[in-house]
Every structure is written in C-alpha cells, then in structure tokens.
Amino acid sequence: MKIAVTYDENQNVFQHFGHTEQFKIYEIENNSVVSSRVLSSDGEGHSALAQLLENENIDKLICGGIGGCAVNALGQAGIEIFAGISGSADEAVNALLNGTLEQTTSPNCSHHGEGHQHHHGEGHSCGHSCH
C-alpha cells in the first residue's frame, strides 16, 4: 500500500491540497512503514495533483483542506481520502495504520483570512473552478 501526505517544510501535513508543493510518500507492508520519500508536485491544481498521485499508484491520501473538485478527481482515481488532518505527517500515517485516524472525504477547504481569493458560487467552497 502507498500513502501520500500533503507535506510542508516543517514535516507537517500541508493545509491546502490544491496548493501543495510536495507530498511525502510512504510505502507500507504488513501495516508498517518500510520506506518514505518526498515527491515534488511540480505544479498546481486539483486535476494535476490527482493525476500525479494516480500515476504514483497512491492508495490513500492524508491532507488538510481539500475542495470538492479534488475530492471528485481523487475519487475517480480510486484514492481514499483522509482530510482535515493537521500536525506531524509521520504521526498522521501512524494513526492511520493504527486505525485511529478519522476518515473524512467531504470538501473542507476553508482558508478564509489566509490571503487566498475566494469567490463563492463557482463550484465548491473555495471558488476554484474544477480543471
């Protein structure tokens, strides 16, 4: 099994899927991490990021905020989503493996007041168009 985590420079779960610059990819065997690596996203946008994860054969995604378009794209790729997660990426993966990480697949992108532009009524809660 392969798990991807949106990843920031502080080794934490990055809080906006559509703007993540890197993922930490964990290889899992027998419910244990056997290896991990950081993968640059080399792009931005829900579709491009979902395609990148699909190309990497990712089974599960752990992330912070995620919009409806990304949820749909990842769902079409067969990737299980654990959203609304914060804190250490490694601890989040361990919680998932231990069965204590709560699964949320609902769009929960809510970064108001953080310098992002939002225009409601354009598709999902962030106002980004699906592409």
Describe the structure in your own words.
Residues 111-125 have a biased composition (Basic and acidic residues). This protein has helices spanning 46-55, 68-76, 89-98, and strands at 2-6, 22-29, 32-40, 60-62, 80-82. It is α/β, with parallel strands linked by helices and 131 residues long. Strands 3-2-1-4-5 form a five-stranded mixed β-sheet, sandwiched between helices. Strand 4 (60-62), helix 2 and strand 5 (80-82) form a beta-alpha-beta unit. The N and C termini lie far apart (28 Å).
Please summarize the sheet with the most strands.
5 strands, mixed
Approximately what portion of the residues adopt beta-strand conformation? 15-25%
| Name given to the CATH homologous superfamily | Dinitrogenase iron-molybdenum cofactor biosynthesis domain
Radius of gyration of CA atoms, rounded to a whole number: 14 Å
Kindly state the mean pLDDT as a whole number? 84
Please give the CATH architecture. Answer: 2-Layer Sandwich
- How does the overall form come out from the CA principal axes? globular
Task: Kindly state the percentage of residues in helix.
Answer: 10-25%
Low-confidence stretches: 111-129
Structural class call reads: alpha/beta
Separation, N- and C-terminal Cα atoms? 28 Å
CATH topology: Nucleotidyltransferase, domain 5
Give helix and strand order, one letter per element, not per position.
Answer: EEEHEHEH
Number of domains: 1
What is the CATH C-level name?
Answer: Alpha Beta
Output the number of helix runs.
3
With strands numbered from the N-terminus, the spatial order across the biggest sheet is 3-2-1-4-5
The total strand number stands at: 5
